[in-house]
Amino acid sequence: MTLALFDLDNTLLAGDSDHAWGEFLVEEGIVDEAEHRRANDRFYQEYLNGELDIFHYLRFALAPLTRYPMDELLAWRATFMERKVLPMLQNKAQALLDRHRQQGHTLMIITATNRFVTEPIAERLGVEHLIATDPEIVDGRFTGEVEGVPSFREGKVTRLNHWMDSRRQSLDGAWFYSDSHNDAPLLQAVDHPVAVDPDPTLEALARASGWPVISLRD
Q: Which CATH superfamily is domain 17-87 in?
């Protein structure tokens, strides 16, 4: 079984679903506009700079989920999908997924963004396997804590190794597509790393390493 692995934000999507969820919460009046937007933008810049403290960020990102019942959160998420995510979908990304699917590859999205935000996106893209940061749920409510290892930087490799061990799979012949230098650990672990609309740091690494550099922007 050959794995075809895909980062989500700014790779398959023409934008960042995690940041967009924060913007959606602001627009709906669910969180304080000035405070939340300022923090959301700061964390996003830290991510781009390769300086993000993932646990500090997750405490911020997951906090709003703890304040409301699940049915209300799910209703908001459906609206978020229509308003924010669907405009980020890319025809070239869907065609790339289809090419790997036609080759019989096993498709997986592997993302640092939490599962609550990303699960319906993976379903919309028709990708069966998803590794995402897992928010803890107790008695049907989010606690604001993380369950297990966040799938960020080296954590993506850790989580993927656990997934493969449980299924007796390997990275032989695997592909991984990403836009971010934060994904260098996993890109360096696969046989076919591909930089997609990369940030400057990843583009430099890809050029130096002889990796393909492609664009999925329509």
A: SG protein - dephosphorylation function (1.20.1440.100)
Residue ranges covered by each domain of the chain = 3-15+89-214, 17-87
The answer on pLDDT for 1 being more than 90 is no
pLDDT, tens digit (0-9, with 9 covering 90-100), for 160-188: 999 999 999 999 999 999 999 999 999 99
What confidence tens digit (pLDDT) does each residue in 12-31 have? 999 999 999 999 999 999 99
Q: Distance (Å, rounded) from C-alpha 19 to C-alpha 17? A: 6
- Class of the domain covering 3-15+89-214: alpha beta
For residues 109 and 129, is the Cβ–Cβ distance under 8 A?
yes
With 0-12 CB in 10 A as exposed, 13-18 as middle and 19+ as buried, what is 172?
A: exposed
- Give pTM, 2 decimals: 0.95
**Catalytic site positions:** 7, 9
